[in-house]
Design a protein that fits this description.
Distance between the termini: 77 Å
Number of helices: 2
Order of helices and strands: EEEEHEEEEEH
Oligomer: single chain
Strand content: 35-45%
């Protein structure tokens, strides 16, 4: 079976799920109280054409496949395999044909949500070795103090002979700075 477009011209498809506004009104106020919005589940209309003439068994198989599920089932289109719609058919399915076992089916599907889903993504399994890091230094003074010293109040200060930008003269070159 093929998914077909029966409309001439531009392709028609849903843009987003329909939504309704949740609000309450009161007797003496013209402006309602806004509570939020509610998205409705997606509704898709799909038309299927048979590639070849069908027989009675073909129609019976397709009818069972499309109309007998009692729970939401995945619907995936070949041009967008990363989108999975979980659907059940609603309304009345139509079989339109020319009495020569040639024609198409039109079904309306209702999704279980306002969004499509993506396939389950699994990554490789990585071996993990638990090597916990233990910090043995419990005070700042036990660590390395590169260019820093602690004064008598245990405040950080620069060592007196440390390089600072203020000590450079205006004509200093890069070679003089990084020697």
């Amino acid at each position: 079976m093929l998914n077909v477009n029966l409309n001439g011209g531009m392709q028609d498809e849903y843009f987003a799920a329909s939504q309704s506004i949740l609000e309450d009104g009161t007797r003496f106020r013209t402006k309602p109280y806004f509570h939020g919005t509610k998205k409705e589940p997606l509704k898709l209309q799909v038309s299927f054409a048979f590639e070849y003439d069908w027989g009675v068994n073909d129609l019976r198989y397709v009818r069972s496949w499309l109309t007998e599920p009692t729970n939401y089932v995945p619907l995936i289109f070949s041009n967008e395999p990363e989108k999975i719609y979980y659907v059940l058919y609603v309304d009345e399915p139509e079989l339109l044909h020319n009495s020569l076992s040639q024609g198409y089916l039109t079904l309306n599907f209702r999704c279980n949500d306002a969004y499509a889903f993506s396939p389950l993504m699994l990554s490789e399994i990585y071996e993990w070795e638990d090597n916990p890091f233990h910090l043995t230094q419990h005070a700042f003074v036990e660590g390395e103090l590169n260019g820093l010293v602690l004064d008598k109040n245990n405040h950080l200060t620069l060592q007196p002979d440390s390089f600072t930008w203020n000590k450079l003269n205006d004509e200093a070159t890069w070679n003089e700075i990084f020697k």
